[in-house]
Design a protein that fits this description.
Blueprint: H1 3-19, H2 26-36, H3 44-54, H4 62-72, H5 127-132, H6 141-146, H7 148-156, E1 162-169, E2 174-175, H8 177-184, E3 196-201, E4 205-211, H9 217-233, E5 238-242, E6 246-248, H10 258-268, H11 278-288, H12 290-293, E7 298-303, H13 312-325, E8 328-333, H14 346-351, E9 357-360, H15 364-368, H16 371-374
Parallel strand pairs: 4-5, 4-7, 7-8, 8-9
Antiparallel strand pairs: 1-3, 2-3, 5-6
Helix pairs in contact: 1-4, 2-3, 7-9, 9-10, 11-13
């Protein structure tokens, strides 16, 4: 099956799931295609596991997923990938996942090459797909409420990322013969039941530092909403905010609706939307919190546009100290969503040598690219 046929097959499968009430978004379809490039596709159990993980299928929908998978994939011919196979990019706003010549849920192109109009519920035209590409600085408070569900789903992607390490499991995945034989000793050598293993879920250790200065005001609200959703999945996440000073807000992230939590943070953080002292704030984090919260397993995420007129030597010194202890440093910059952006501002230029990844953070779609960095 060629790369294009694979995309069409995934889209058809996703449409079948949606028809059964299983939520599958456009981003989930893209993740599914990418996941299939990383597994042994002729192995149906690998395909089943990869699709269920990439599409973020909830436990309550497993039965519907299994039935649809058996119909769409059990008899499908082997798919082989090579370097020429391409994975579709979700970048174009409002674009469908497939090329015009392909079909979605049985649609066919009209004579003359003009595509048939999208049916209601087509993933390329859903309100959620529009929200995923709407810049945070153009979003309203109502958009923050509308994005709560997509943010929760996005954060749940961390809960289904598995390592290569195998651990004992109750569900039937990979038979553990050694434990099975040990268990049979108690039954006189009879293999009454098999023991199983499964790939362990590895929860990332995260420290997030979010800039809440005036230039980050609108972005900070949505980025903190994402961080709140992230911490509910990765419970070891520590959250700090900074502007002219640093504040630890991990304890303020309680249960409840994400927009309300963000509003409480906005009210509680001193000098929200005020000035910014990135160097001083990072230096305070290093002196007061680095040894406690950052180890060789920790990924440090800094959310900031890097606009600071302060002493850049302090930024470089703080970043060097964080770099010496952290596993990785990821800097999410809303300005990096502009293809013309270059990290030439004084603060960014000082921090850049110590950053592992500089990524955009201007909309939900850009935040999706963060998850593979945390795996």
């Amino acid at each position: 099956m060629a790369g294009g046929d694979l995309v069409a097959h995934v889209a058809t499968f996703a449409g079948a799931l949606r028809s059964r009430g299983v939520h599958v978004g456009l981003g989930d379809e893209v993740d599914a295609v990418r996941a299939l490039t990383l597994v042994d596709v002729p192995d149906r159990s690998e395909v089943h596991r990869a699709l269920r993980i990439a599409m973020k299928i909830l436990r309550r929908d497993w039965a519907a997923f299994d039935e649809s998978f058996a119909r769409f994939w059990a008899a499908a011919p082997p798919v082989r990938h090579d370097s020429r196979d391409t994975v579709p990019s979700p970048r174009p706003a409002g674009a469908a996942l497939l090329r015009p010549s392909m079909s979605v849920e049985g649609e066919t192109s009209r004579p003359g090459g003009s595509p048939a109009p999208p049916e209601e519920g087509s993933p390329g035209y859903s309100p959620e797909a529009v929200l995923r590409r709407k810049p945070f600085d153009q979003c309203s408070d109502a958009d923050l409420h509308a994005m709560e569900r997509p943010m929760r789903q996005l954060a749940r992607g961390l809960a289904v990322r598995r390592s290569r390490r195998l651990v004992p499991a109750r569900r039937r995945e990979t038979a553990d013969l050694r434990r099975s034989f040990r268990r049979s000793i108690g039954t006189g050598g009879e293999l009454v039941s098999l023991a199983y293993r499964a790939r362990a879920i590895e929860w990332p250790r995260l420290v997030v530092l979010c800039d809440t200065s005036g230039s980050m005001d609108r972005h900070a609200r949505f980025l903190l909403a994402f961080v709140v959703a992230l911490r509910r999945v990765a419970r070891s996440t520590e959250v700090f905010v900074f502007n002219t000073a640093l504040a630890r807000v991990t304890g303020s992230i309680a249960s409840g609706r994400i927009p309300r939590i963000v509003e409480r943070l906005v009210s509680a953080v001193p000098d929200w939307s005020g000035g910014t002292r990135i160097g001083e704030s990072l230096g305070e984090f290093v002196s007061a919190h680095l040894d406690r919260f950052v180890t060789h397993k920790t990924v440090v995420i800094i959310l900031s546009d890097g606009l600071d007129r302060g002493d850049t030597t302090r930024i470089a010194a703080a970043m060097k100290a964080i770099r010496s202890r952290a596993r990785r440093i990821i800097w999410l910059n809303p300005l990096a969503g502009d293809p013309r952006y270059e990290p030439t501002a004084r603060a960014m230029a000082a921090a850049r040598p110590f950053i592992d990844r500089l990524l955009p953070a201007h909309d939900l779609e850009s935040l999706e690219r963060l998850l593979p960095e945390l795996a």
